[in-house]
Amino acid sequence: MIIPRVPPSHRAMLAQARLSGPTPWVLAILMLLTLLAAAAGLSLARGANGIGGAIAGRVTVQIVTANPELRSEQAFRLRRAAAGEPYVRAATAVPRGDVAESLARWFGTGDGTNDPVIAALPLPELIDIDLVPGSNAAQLARLRALAAREAPGARVIPHADWLGPVARTIRTLAFVAAGLVVLMALASAAVVIMTARAALGTHYATIEMLHLIGATDQQICRLFQRRIAIDSAYGILLGAMIAAVLLAIIGWQFSGVTAGLGAEADLGAAGWIFLALLPLIAIALAALTARVTLLRALKTML
Amino acid sequence: MSAASRPRAGGAMVEFDHVGLRYSPDAEVLADISFLLQPGSFYFLTGPSGAGKTSLLKMLYLAQRPTRGIVRMMGEDVVALPRARLPGFRRRIGVVFQDFRLIPHLSARDNIALPLRIAGVEEADLAGPVGEMLSWIGLAERAAALPATLSGGEQQRVAIARAVIARPQLLIADEPTGNVDPDMAMRLLGLFEALNRLGTTVVVATHDVHLISRIDNAQMMRLEKGRLADPTGALRFPPANRA
Fold first, then answer.
1. Residue B1: CB atoms within 10 Å
2. Same structural domain for residues A205 and A263?
3. Are residues A45 and A172 in the same domain?
4. Residue A127: helix, strand or coil by DSSP?
5. Residues A102 and A216 grouped into a single domain
6. Considering A153, A182, A204, which residue would you say is the last residue of a domain?
7. Cβ of A7 under 8 Å from any chain B Cβ?
8. pLDDT tens track for A257-288
């Protein structure tokens, strides 16, 4: 049992008021940091997976033939040919207006539709191609061959080439967050171990007396385990409540983000369930750590 | 007692057989201690300070294992006893410490009730025996008092009540009269004698030679420099005064 049942008259065998030591407060801080790190790790992992999924099979073909008419014709042929290939899920020509709009951000000339400079530029024809999930390397090789045949000189640009490092970096950050969660769990366990040992030291005379009267290690352990588990639970729940408020505020702020990584940084139902379970797991681990520490220490006494 | 009716070790409350104890690689604190304590007997353990009385008592109340020799208690070898079985034996032993060792945050009533609670007695069944014990030691009016508010004699009586409430088979008292006036010392000794009449084996460590003469049929064990002398011959078989 996480918090063992001890009759009220037996609880009085140990002095000291609840929350009188630093343990609950230290555990509250550690739990707060653990939950924030876990939430960050989960949202980063989901974001990285979202980006990874989006870019895994996405390719842009850039046709840069100098002659505008030939360029358009090559683009038309290539898009039609690609759409007929079994390894292609979709082939979409990027409208010239979208390309002009993207360029206009750099030129600072509105939406670019009526910009004479942009209109005069020899803009490439762009085709976005989504490959069916599977062996991207082989599909890419076939697409390159197709592009070379239908539009010689066209550049085939897999999105993974330039967004992949970003996704990897985000995944690394997610692993760092997971590592922090593990480290803080270990730190919490260390706090509980130190608390248990300190409690045994503080109450040594009482424990010795209880032993001599005939108390078993289990009986004495239950007294301390209950006290430490309850103190730990107070601290962990306090930290969890503060973390919940902070995560709610951060979530509310992110709710306005509709594009980019922010839009992907949702915890999801499983993530929220995991975060909700973390404090309960932490309380159980604290109680178990206290129990093991106490029983080991008690065995060294006669 | 004839040699034929010599008590077997198996019937003894306690048997020490060539027991030695050392706390460090230096000389033994106790050496070659051998004796039998018979059920229902009353023993005084005397000797100068530093002779090893407290160490011997610690082995008797199972707070210390010897470094050599055999200690049998109630028929079992307690040196080789698994740790898990020690509580069962300790519940059959009552101990009165020289410094009382009352739990300071518990009232006199709760200190006395401690052995019964540890033994798993229900709360509803505690009030009777604890109340009787408080009356017996004359502290019924001070049941709720904390040890710090009690006099030395009152604390000593609470400590004795705690030691005997579970009706131990063996009662061990370390200098129980060391902190009380002579009048109180005699009253406490009367309590031990009453318990002894009820069948409890009593071992009292004391410096007070006057106490020894107050108990009829009490046997004396004397420790000097870690070795046991047997001035009354009670520890020999057959005992000198009954042979």
1. 11
2. yes
3. yes
4. strand
5. no
6. A153
7. yes
8. 655 555 556 778 888 899 999 999 999 999 99
Domain total of chain A: 2
Q: Where is the domain boundary, A153, A177, A204? A: A153
Q: Considering only residues 173 to 192 of chain A, which have any Cβ-Cβ distance to chain B shorter than 8 Å?
A: none
List, for residues B86-142, the tens digit of each pLDDT value.
Answer: 999 999 999 999 888 999 999 999 999 999 999 989 888 999 999 999 998 889 999
Distance from CA of B8 to the nearest CA of A (A): 28
- Determine contact: A213 vs chain B, CB below 8 A: yes
Q: Residue B231's pLDDT is what?
A: 59
Please judge whether A302 and B65 are an interchain contact, meaning their C-beta atoms are less than 8 angstroms apart: yes
Task: Report pLDDT for B101.
Answer: 92
Asked if residue A267 is part of any domain, the answer here is yes
Tell me: do A120 and A229 sit in the same domain. Answer: no
Answer whether residue A29 shows pLDDT above 90. Answer: yes
Q: What is the mean pLDDT of residues B183-205?
A: 86
For residue B36, give the 3-state DSSP assignment.
strand
pLDDT tens by residue, A48-82:
777 776 677 788 999 988 888 899 898 999 999 98
**Could B87 and A216 be called an inter-chain contact, meaning their C-beta atoms sit closer than 8 Å?**
yes
Q: Is residue A57, in this structure, part of any structural domain at all?
A: no
The answer to whether A72 contacts chain B (CB < 8 Å) is: no
B63, B65, B123 ranked by CB distance to A212: nearest: B63
In-domain check, residue A253 = yes
For B101-145, give the DSSP string.
---TTS-HHHHHHHHHHHTT--GGGTHHHHHHHHHHTT-GGGTT-
A211 touching chain B per CB within 8 A: yes
Residues of B with CB under 8 A from a CB of A: 61-65, 83-84, 86-91, 95, 101, 103-106, 110, 113-115, 117-119, 123, 162
Note down the domain range covering A208: 8-52+168-299
Q: State the sign of the Cα–Cα–Cα–Cα dihedral A102, A106, A111, A115.
A: negative
Closest to B113 in 3D by CA, of B126, B125, B103, B124: B126
In whole numbers, what is the pLDDT of chain A averaged over residues? 85
Q: What H or E segment, with its residue span, contains residue A111?
A: none
Looking at the predicted complex, does its ipTM rise above 0.95?
no
**Closest chain B residue by Cα to residue A302:** B63
Does A147 share its domain with A76? yes
CA–CA distance from A66 to each of A61, A95, A100, A122, B67 (Å)? 16, 18, 18, 8, 100
Evaluate whether residue A91 is within a structural domain: yes
pTM: 0.74
Out of B83, B87, B117, name the one closest to residue A9 (CB): B117
Q: What is the mean pLDDT of residues A237-244?
A: 95
Q: Determine phi and psi for B38, rounding to 5 degrees.
A: -85, 145
- The answer to whether A54 and A101 are in contact (CB under 8 A) is no
pLDDT value at residue B234: 60
- Best mutation target, A9, A207, A212, A218, to test chain B (most B CBs within 10 A): A212
